[in-house]
Specification:
seven-stranded mixed sheet; 21% strand; globular; six-stranded mixed sheet; binds nicotinamide-adenine-dinucleotide; alpha/beta; Aldehyde Dehydrogenase, Chain A, domain 1; Aldehyde Dehydrogenase, Chain A, domain 2; 15 helices; 2 domains
Length: 500
């Protein structure tokens, strides 16, 4: 018997109105991991009403920052004790390797929770001053109210944490909709949240189809902010639907990260960065290296070395410690990547390795794909412009750096990028020219709780992580206190009567 999960509303798991469940599968063998409720519009409304009521009663927002902080720290401690169980569940559900789920996702999730727990106590107003000569001004940060978070399947619990941790730290109530394929770790976190002392109704999770639940969340007037991590097209829909209530919108969308390798770069360093950056999480990452620009002086050596390294990646059951790459998350996702591979070949790129369904019979039941590399890529090919979201790297050979930077910037995305070389002045100049929310120098992909993550252009707006993110989940209020203590203020003559 597999575990059945209801919707987490008002502090308990309840069946949805339709009492319908759907299976959650392990993408390496299609075995059933659990069953999850297929929520509908009425279920979503119910979650929103409870979140609203909880916020309006102040059961969470009226707690001191210290009290909220202590509860979030307790949640982090409880999760840390169960790191292995959560890593195993995330790995089984998404297909990411157990080592990556444990040392990457879970490590960062626990740190994020602790960071925002502490940050809750440092959320300050900005001003106290007399600017008019007649009174004092105070600037105060307040929670927004009810927040809706919608998250994708590639980092289910991590990206949910990027929303719930700052939202709760600031005093909001939240409803989260996980991706339909990968809701399990977030549902399990609800048990820990209750144990840690988060009051009922403050954190709610609703599972089911994105279009139905997401539409209700975007249009519901009791919600003050919606924060989506997902595809650009979903972001556009959310923004359009949210305009009916003018709620605050925060969008973390796709990417097409360039990696610029300068001619003075150490070859081994660059290749290590390229292999890891292209293939972590099976390339299903919005910041993954997807366009590698290599100076012509080292291009051939780079391709040879990167191909050799890529061929050493061990593909298999994601729950084995020795596996380097698990399956893609679903058959739809693998088909999408295979279609891009076909389009790359048709448009004249050269597939130098990988990009194939493995022949190994033991892998036949899963959505596996060998990590691949395209060379002889041109900027007008689809594989050079669009988000593949799988284990495929594309390599450009370049001569002229200025032209290369133009090509690197000339995509609709602006999430992350990196530049590799030795001359720090040159590297910093290029970092200024790259039109991306993050530029890593001599590394690619590292994230820390203290620094912001977020895109430019169609990669969205708003920031995850850092104090910038905490501030996203607040509103700024100006409070003015008159100090004249007189009925007729010096400026009243401008409305009627005479100047005194
Ligand atoms: P997606 O947009 O299809 O789904 C994301 C979430 O939105 C899911 O929960 C889904 O159910 C929901 N959704 C889908 N259609 C909806 C609709 N019409 N209205 C409301 N909600 C809807 O994206 P995905 O395929 O799950 O994830 C991959 C995408 O996410 C990629 O583009 C990737 O780059 C992006 N991503 C971005 C970041 C970032 O930090 N910028 C991080 C991870 C993933």
């Amino acid at each position: 018997m597999v575990k059945k999960y209801g919707l987490f509303i008002g502090g308990e798991f309840i069946p949805g109105e339709n009492k319908e469940y759907y299976p959650i599968l392990n993408p390496s063998n299609k075995s059933k991991l659990a069953e999850v409720t297929y929520g509908n519009i009425n279920d979503t409304k119910k979650a929103v009403d409870i979140a609203r009521e909880t916020f309006d009663k102040g059961v969470w927002s009226d707690l001191t920052p210290q009290a909220r902080s202590n509860i979030l720290l307790k949640l982090a401690d409880l999760l840390e004790k169960q790191t292995n169980e959560f890593a195993k569940l995330e790995s089984a559900n998404v297909g990411k390797t157990i080592k990556f789920a444990r040392e990457g996702d879970l490590f960062l999730i626990i740190d994020n929770l602790r960071y925002f727990a502490t940050a809750a106590r440092n959320l300050e107003g900005k001003n106290f001053g007399d600017y008019s000569g007649l009174g004092y001004s105070i600037i105060k940060r307040e929670p927004l109210g009810v927040v809706a978070g919608i998250v994708p399947w590639n980092y289910p619990l991590l990206l949910a944490t990027w929303k719930l941790a700052p939202a709760l730290a600031a005093g909001n109530s939240i409803i989260i909709k996980p991706a339909s394929l990968t809701p399990l770790t977030l549902l399990e976190l609800c048990n820990l949240a209750k144990k840690a002392g988060i009051p009922d109704g403050v954190l709610n999770v609703i599972t089911g189809p994105g279009e139905i639940i997401g539409t209700e969340l975007a249009c519901n007037k009791k919600i003050d902010m919606i924060s989506l991590t997902g595809d650009v097209e979903t972001g556009k829909k959310i923004m359009e639907m949210s305009s009916s209530t003018l709620k605050k919108v925060h969008l973390e969308l796709g990417g097409k990260a360039p990696m610029i390798i300068l001619d003075d770069c150490d070859l081994k360093t660059a290749v290590e960065g390229a292999v890891v950056g292209s293939f972590w999480n099976s390339g299903q990452d919005c910041t993954a290296v997807t366009r590698i620009f290599v100076h012509e002086s080292m291009h051939d050596k780079f391709v040879k070395y990167m191909t050799e390294k890529t061929k050493t990646i061990i593909i298999g059951d994601q729950l084995k410690e020795s596996t380097d790459m698990g399956p893609l998350v679903s058959s739809t996702q693998r088909k999408r990547v295979l279609d891009y591979i076909e389009s790359g070949k048709k448009e004249g790129a050269k597939l130098v390795c990988g990009g194939k369904v493995p022949e190994n019979k033991n892998l036949a039941n899963g959505y596996f794909l060998t990590p691949g590399i395209f060379t002889e890529v041109h900027s007008d090919m689809r594989i050079a412009k669009e988000e593949i979201f799988g284990p495929m790297a594309v390599i450009f050979k370049y001569k002229n750096l200025d032209e290369t930077l133009k090509i690197a910037n000339n995509v609709k995305y602006g999430l992350a990028s990196s530049v590799w070389g030795k001359d720090i002045n040159k590297l910093l100049k290029i970092a200024s020219e790259l039109n991306f929310g993050t530029v890593w120098i001599n590394d690619h992909g590292i994230l820390v709780s203290e620094m912001p993550h977020g895109g430019f252009k169609q990669s969205g707006f708003g920031k995850d992580l850092s104090m910038y993110s905490l501030e996203e989940y607040t509103r700024v209020k100006h409070i003015y206190i008159d100090k004249t203590n007189v009925a007729r203020k010096p400026w009243h003559w401008t409305v009627y009567g005479k100047k005194d």
